């Protein structure tokens, strides 16, 4: 049964009834969401300038009408609460949750700007590598078995079971780009043979992707955001705000980390093909974000894990090394799926010149493969930056 979606006028009545504004006579409501899954509105008071965000989930995708588990709204709410607790201010503050209507009312982050668009413009904030790595440090390891009690961790795994949205990732990210069984991949006709030879027919690559897929499906390591691309990260001079954790579940930490690294790589690859002035700053951002994340993973292990049994140095090295390898691997799968799959990013689609687009596609395919196939060998950000610059 379709849920009762609120209209703009009904949302105004809804926030008035819940007393979010002292003066409710001069409120306005506009829809600001451009996504495919939820409805997002901004309600503001013309007099005071105060504003809030109202987000409502439906049981169907907006574009196709495909059914989607409405429980994702509660998962998003619980994820935001968890992330805010572990790293206050890094996500929008939640003011109210209505489970019956699948409505979340939260902080308006209009003073922050979409990171994907900012990187495209060359607006690279000095704090960015530190802020991104700090978010990963403070939201991932604290949600593992080594910090939480065994019972609390298992109850969390149960609370964040997210089959429908995990299925989207397992298909669109970790299956279809390598096995086009639904015929939904979007590949320029100039590159069809190249993709067939270098992706579909590369048995070694597919074996490694299957390992990463198996890890994604079976490794309930920590509570992850699950869709941590640069379109879900907002930034200004003061820091970052991370939104939309509706894909959250207990999975491998490297998936979140790799998504961050992979999405910075799109801006860098775009800059390399265009040969513009962003190159040096984006090289630095990618290298520093990788290196700072790795350093902070070790630091987080020492800071948050108190049980002496887990302080075995050999185990720590093995554990973090596996997370780092996962991160490089999932960065590669994010890069390849955005280039070959049907969910593109602006850094790719904005290139209208046919020759430049072909060069970008080939660069991204080869870079993604490098990260997947060499994920256990790569140790530093400079190795990654040097490789992409020499493609």
From TrEMBL:
Keywords in alphabetical order: ATP-binding, Kinase, Nucleotide-binding, Transferase
EC number: 2.7.1.100
Keyword Transmembrane helix in record: no
A GO molecular-function annotation: S-methyl-5-thioribose kinase activity
Aminoglycoside phosphotransferase domain segment(s): 212-265
Source organism superkingdom: Bacteria
GO biological process, one term: methionine biosynthetic process
Pfam families: APH
Family: Belongs to the methylthioribose kinase family.
Assembly and oligomerization: Homodimer.
PANTHER family: METHYLTHIORIBOSE KINASE (PTHR34273)
UniProt protein name: S-methyl-5-thioribose kinase
Organism field: Anaerococcus porci
Gene giving rise to this polypeptide: mtnK
């Amino acid at each position: 049964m379709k849920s009762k979606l609120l209209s703009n006028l009904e949302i105004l009545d809804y926030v008035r009834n819940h007393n979010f504004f002292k003066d409710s006579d001069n409120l306005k409501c506009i829809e600001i969401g451009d996504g495919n899954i939820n409805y997002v509105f901004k309600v503001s008071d013309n007099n005071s300038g105060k504003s809030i965000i109202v987000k409502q989930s439906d049981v169907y995708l907006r574009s196709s009408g495909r059914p989607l588990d409405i429980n994702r709204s509660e998962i998003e709410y619980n994820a935001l609460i968890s992330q805010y607790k572990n790293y206050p201010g890094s996500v929008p503050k939640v003011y109210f949750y209505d489970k019956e209507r699948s409505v979340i009312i939260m902080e308006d982050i209009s003073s922050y700007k979409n990171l994907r668009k900012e990187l495209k413009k060359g607006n690279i904030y000095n704090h960015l590598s530190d802020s991104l790595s700090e978010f990963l440090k403070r939201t991932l390891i604290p949600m593992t078995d080594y910090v939480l009690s065994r019972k609390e961790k298992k109850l969390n795994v149960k609370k964040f079971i997210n089959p429908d949205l995990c299925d989207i990732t397992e298909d669109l990210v970790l299956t279809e780009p390598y096995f086009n069984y639904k015929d939904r991949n979007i590949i320029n006709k100039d590159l069809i043979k190249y993709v067939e030879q270098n992706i579909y027919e590369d048995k070694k690559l597919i074996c490694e992707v299957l390992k990463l897929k198996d890890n994604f499906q079976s490794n309930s390591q920590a509570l992850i955001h699950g869709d941590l691309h640069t379109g879900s990260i907002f930034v200004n001079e003061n820091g970052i705000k991370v939104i939309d954790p509706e894909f959250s579940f207990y999975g491998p930490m490297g998936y979140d980390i790799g998504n961050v690294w992979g999405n910075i790589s799109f801006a860098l690859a775009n800059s390399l093909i265009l040969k513009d002035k962003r190159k040096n700053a984006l090289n630095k951002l990618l290298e520093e974000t990788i290196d700072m994340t790795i350093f902070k993973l070790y630091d987080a292990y020492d800071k948050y894990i108190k049980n002496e049994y887990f302080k075995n140095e050999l185990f720590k090295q093995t554990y973090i090394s596996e997370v780092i390898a996962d991160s490089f691997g999932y960065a590669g799968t994010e890069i390849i799926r955005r280039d070959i799959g049907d969910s593109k990013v602006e850094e790719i689609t904005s290139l209208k010149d046919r020759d430049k687009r072909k060069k970008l596609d080939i660069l991204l395919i080869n870079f993604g493969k490098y990260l997947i196939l060499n994920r256990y060998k790569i140790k530093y950000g400079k190795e990654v930056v040097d490789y992409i610059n020499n493609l």
